[in-house]
Amino acid sequence: MGSKLIIDTDPGVDDAFAIALAAVSADVELLGVTTVFGNVPLTSTTANARRLLQLCDRPDVPVAAGASRPLVHLNKRGSSHVHGNDGLSGHAGSLPEATRPLESLDAVGLMVSLLEASDEPVTIAPIGPLTNIAALLAAHPGIKSKISRIVLMGGGVARGNSTAVAEFNIWADPEAAHRVIAEDDVPCVMVPLDLTHRCAVDSAWLAKLAASGPLGRALDGLTPDYLAHYRQVLGFDGIVMHDAVAVAEAISPGILRTETYPVDIDVTAGPARGMTLVDRRALPIDPTGRPIEVAVDTDLDGLREFVLSRLAGGR
């Protein structure tokens, strides 16, 4: 097996593509999947993650449920208007029932167990709100040496989606995002909206995925509500695979080009709450936050082909 990976997720259609990408990649050792509230409530994100792993013929991968709400301020708005009421365009029931029971450990407990047992540092790919990761780093600071890097999907340099300036995963729990991104010292790569939107795939790409076999057909079958939303956002028939872009970087380091900038998170109660403040000045004066890698570019066609070829060749 190749690089070791833990995915923390809130499936979500783009999460489904991301989980499948890791689950079917022979050069990835997917140690575990942890779930968090986000696109839909925790009960649904957890059920979806388990069904997706079953779809990928990966009942060997443990799943543990994590935070059902943000660290500090309760936030009742999810993204069901984007992903459908069940998180998968109303088609979660089309996926096979999971055969592996849910872990008795919670998300943080499973991550600690997997990290402690690993003989080498592990990449963590959080592709939902950062609540579980903040709790892990706060409660188990000694475990940080077992984390090689955190590759997260979240934030925006020049745009938002939940608000004019805030991306959903950060906006859903800004305090957790601040703890992970702006305050800690674990190496961090932020994959923002600015890049994920440029990696959007069109209906021709989805048709190739659907024609590739049972896995591709099942994944394409989860996209109707998501496609309807992004038809309005993009102006063409296509979807944005936000989380799959981040997981591509997690499993193939360097597939995204990054630049290092100081990044802070707005945790105030005002209209900028959840904004990622990316300081791109050549000579920052008293920058806040901390320097992290921000993904800014990729070979767009190469990235799309990387994801498609792996999903098409999957189980």
Automatic annotation (TrEMBL):
Record-annotated membrane-spanning stretches: none
Coiled-coil stretches: none
Ranges for domain Inosine/uridine-preferring nucleoside hydrolase: 5-303
GO BP annotation list: purine nucleoside catabolic process
A single cellular component GO annotation: cytosol
SUPFAM superfamilies assigned to the protein according to its UniProt record, in alphabetical order: Nucleoside hydrolase
GO MF entry, a single one: purine nucleosidase activity
Pfam family, one: IU_nuc_hydro
Name the record gives this protein: Nucleoside hydrolase
Organism annotation: Amycolatopsis carbonis
